[in-house]
Amino acid sequence: MQDNLLGSLVDALRCLPGVGPKSAQRMALHLLERDREGGRNLSRVMAEAMERIGRCTRCRDLTERELCSICSDTRRDDGLLCIVESPVDVLAIEQATAFRGRYFVLLGRLSPLDGIGPEELGLDMLEERLDTEPPQELIVATNPTVEGEATAYYLHKMAEARGISVSRIAHGVPLGGELEYIDQTTLAHAFGSRQSFTPGR
Amino acid sequence: MQDNLLGSLVDALRCLPGVGPKSAQRMALHLLERDREGGRNLSRVMAEAMERIGRCTRCRDLTERELCSICSDTRRDDGLLCIVESPVDVLAIEQATAFRGRYFVLLGRLSPLDGIGPEELGLDMLEERLDTEPPQELIVATNPTVEGEATAYYLHKMAEARGISVSRIAHGVPLGGELEYIDQTTLAHAFGSRQSFTPGR
Ligand SMILES: [Zn+2]
Ligand SMILES: [Zn+2]
């Protein structure tokens, strides 16, 4: 297969996450047999996206403009600043919640052993922002991993030093989740973070 | 999202079969954050494939050349001609079996109600081939659907009229399949097509 164009297309499709040889094959044949226009369009948009999409100069999220659509939206609340690790997290929060504040995207988490320090995460940029336009509340939405926790701790110190209040999104047993199927770390965390129960609240 | 380039990329990725909104998002972010070179390469190969891949003039399989790699391979056996519905079937047979004969790809199956008759399936082309270079054996590998069966019947008549022997790939319970999980039609077919049991064969 690899000495022909169909084989090259199947190979090239494997750069997509979660696409193995079988699905790459199915995708290539689907486009060739039923949707060449879709394939042409995808090729055009992808080339343009790879060249033109960069980072928002204010929040570091992905955008093809100087400022992303959230940063340039004047109706959003400057008093709330949510810190996330990656652009997927922005999308997830935008889709699931009614949050109307601002974001700052770290593009990673503190990991000194991998050479990822505060500068790599743009924390100097964030620090300047907290100094010049301090929000009322910093919402830390890093992931509950060891590095994510270290990052959260660092952010907490940064905000505390400036008298900005800090909150952390809640971690625990997912709604609809059953205890017996939850991983031990989550369950231990949920147990340790238990709150007083107020019936009817 | 749809008023920006990232949103357009997510939308464009949905032309791929089996890719919903969530996985399109994951794919777009993966390429942008971790594999722009892969994305650029995919875009280039896809554009070229959509423009240049056409049909083999001999077997109707997908190829960017006049003759596909199988038709132009002089080491393959002209005596065996396998008829399949689609290019995926060629790939499946090539990958799973040691078949070294030739193929003819119908690109569909007889379906008069949908306006798919013998010409749409290239059966005139196949007929000419059976007349001028008759194989010893015609292997019918159409799918076991109503239309696939009708097509198989038509092919059988065509070959029979020319004294060419015809075989059909076997249908039944898949190896490793368990009877209780097999769909009823397959099981009924497998039961009806039972063969005499020769122990030790
Ligand atoms: Zn921004
Ligand atoms: Zn061919």
SSE topology sketch:
Two copies of one chain form a homodimer.
Chain A: H1 5-13, H2 21-34, H3 36-52, E1 54-55, E2 62-63, E3 80-84, H4 87-96, E4 102-105, H5 123-132, E5 137-140, H6 146-160, E6 165-168, H7 184-192
Parallel strand pairs in A: 3-4, 3-5, 5-6
Antiparallel strand pairs in A: 1-2
Helix pairs in contact in A: 1-2, 2-3
The complex binds zinc ion (2 copies).
GO molecular function (chains A, B): DNA binding; zinc ion binding
Domain Toprim (chains A, B): 79-174
Organism (chains A, B): Marinihelvus fidelis
What features would you describe in this structure?
- The structure is a homodimer of 201-residue chains.
- By secondary structure, chain A is an alpha/beta fold.
- The radius of gyration of chain A is 22 Å and the shape is globular.
- The first copy, chain A, has seven helices and six strands; from the N terminus they run αααβββαβαβαβα.
- In chain A, helix 1 packs across helix 2 (21-34).
- Chain A is 42% helix and 10% strand.
- In chain A, 27% of the residues are buried.
- Chain A starts with a helix and ends in a 9-residue tail after the last helix.
- Chain A has helices at residues 5-13, 21-34, 36-52, 87-96, 123-132, 146-160, 184-192, and strands at residues 54-55, 62-63, 80-84, 102-105, 137-140, 165-168.
- In chain A, the strands form two sheets. In chain A, strands 4-3-5-6 form a four-stranded parallel β-sheet. In chain A, strands 1-2 form a two-stranded antiparallel ribbon.
- Chain A has two domains: 4-52, RecR Domain 1 (Helicase, Ruva Protein, domain 3); 74-196, Dna Topoisomerase Vi A Subunit, Chain: A, domain 2 (3-Layer(aba) Sandwich).
- Chains A and B meet through helix 1, helix 2, helix 3, strand 2 and helix 4 of A and helix 1, helix 2, helix 3, strand 2 and helix 4 of B.
- Bound molecules: zinc ion (2 copies).
- One zinc ion (ZN) binds at residues 56, 58-59, 61, 67-68, 70-71 of chain A.
